[in-house]
Amino acid sequence: MALPDILFYVFAALTLLCGVLVIANPFSRNPVTSAMFLVLTIISMAGLFALLHAFFLAAVQVLVYAGAVMVLFLFVIMLLDLKEEERRRIKIFSLVAGLVSVGAILFIFTKALATAQPGKNLPAPTAEGATAILGKMLFTDYLLPFEIVSILLLVAMVGVILLSKKDLK
Prior knowledge:
The chain has six helices and no strands. The model has no long low-confidence stretch (mean pLDDT 82). It has helices at 3-23, 31-51, 55-80, 92-115, 131-140, 143-164. It is 73% helix and 0% strand.
């Protein structure tokens, strides 16, 4: 097995493990710990991008998501002053509904993978790591989703500031 194959399995396992630990963290119920596991997930995904020779996406993944967005998440966590969550009893209905939902999603996913023909009718690959094509697509074909995301982030920041203000009476 070659080194890129080994690195792929290492980064994929780290991404999955840290992604699970973001949600179901047995070490701590503190939201800051979950945010740090999210940073590790993002960095592992950047490693996967680097293995695909998408160095620009790897750098953007680390700079934008692990840097700016995680600072925003931690800012929100600190402003809302979230405490460690107490252990709650698991409700049977919620557990069954969640398992049925996950089963349905897995069924749809496996059916889609079984009927898919990966690699068929793909265009010839272009230069590796070219950002001009990405920028052109982002600001032509995907301009509306790009602007919607920027407005959602702005609304989230304003909402956090308004929610965190204390009434001065």
